[in-house]
Amino acid sequence: MIHMTLIARVRDGLPLATSIEGDEQSDIGISKFTSQAKMLFRKLNDQSPKQCSLETGNYYFHYIIDKNVCYLCLCDAAMSRNIAFAYLEELAREFCAGNAGRIESVTRPYHFIEFDSVIQNVKRKYVDYRNRHHLSAVHTELQDVQRIMVQNIEEVIHRGEALNILDDKAANLAFMSQKYKKDAHILNSRSSILKLGVVTFAIVFILFIFKLYFF
């Protein structure tokens, strides 16, 4: 079963459209998975895998990235990955066909909320993944999904957080280094001024003593 579908822009993680089976209080706790999906969207970038499966408890997130848009669904672990990726690829074709010219310009989350009706129509074609005839057709159209990377959603999310922490530490270190250089420059300047003042005072004092005794 496909429990949830989310579509988001990759460059900033902005959710563009969604479709959820049931409600937020359903037995599987859909709000938890929605939060995980949004955190994942914020981690994606140009170097992210274009197709990936992410294990999360008894379920899997499957996603594809096409033309800077991520298409993601949450499915039962028992559901065929072939069916899930075929579903996502058809969604990508439908979404791009009707909205390609507006994807980069929208700023409001879920701007394409009306796309839910299209998601529901496409989902009906794939909901009975036990249909052997349909599964056979998908096998002939889809590449070998065994080569698609499988990861754990928590590892992906925390890996991104760890990298962010390292980036923050590196930025702080660079800032402290610049601050140290600036402080050192100020101290050196003050030291030079102090030395010059001492030398000047010594010269004036010597001239004063010389004048006092010899003139």
Automatic annotation (TrEMBL):
Cellular component, GO annotation: endoplasmic reticulum membrane; endoplasmic reticulum-Golgi intermediate compartment membrane; Golgi apparatus
SUPFAM superfamilies the UniProt entry points to: SNARE fusion complex, SNARE-like
Keyword Membrane in record: yes
Residue ranges of the TM segments: 193-214
Positions of the Longin domain: 6-119
Signal sequence extent: none
GO biological process, one term: retrograde vesicle-mediated transport, Golgi to endoplasmic reticulum
V-SNARE coiled-coil homology domain segment(s): 134-194
InterPro entries named in the record: Longin-like_dom_sf (IPR011012), Longin_dom (IPR010908), Sec22 (IPR044565), Synaptobrevin-like (IPR001388), V_SNARE_CC (IPR042855)
Localization per record: Endoplasmic reticulum membrane; Endoplasmic reticulum-Golgi intermediate compartment membrane; Golgi apparatus, cis-Golgi network membrane; Golgi apparatus, trans-Golgi network membrane
Origin superkingdom: Eukaryota
Record function comment: SNARE involved in targeting and fusion of ER-derived transport vesicles with the Golgi complex as well as Golgi-derived retrograde transport vesicles with the ER.
Family the UniProt entry places it in: Belongs to the synaptobrevin family.
Entry protein name: Vesicle-trafficking protein SEC22b
Organism of origin: Trichinella murrelli
Organism ancestry: Eukaryota, Metazoa, Ecdysozoa, Nematoda, Enoplea
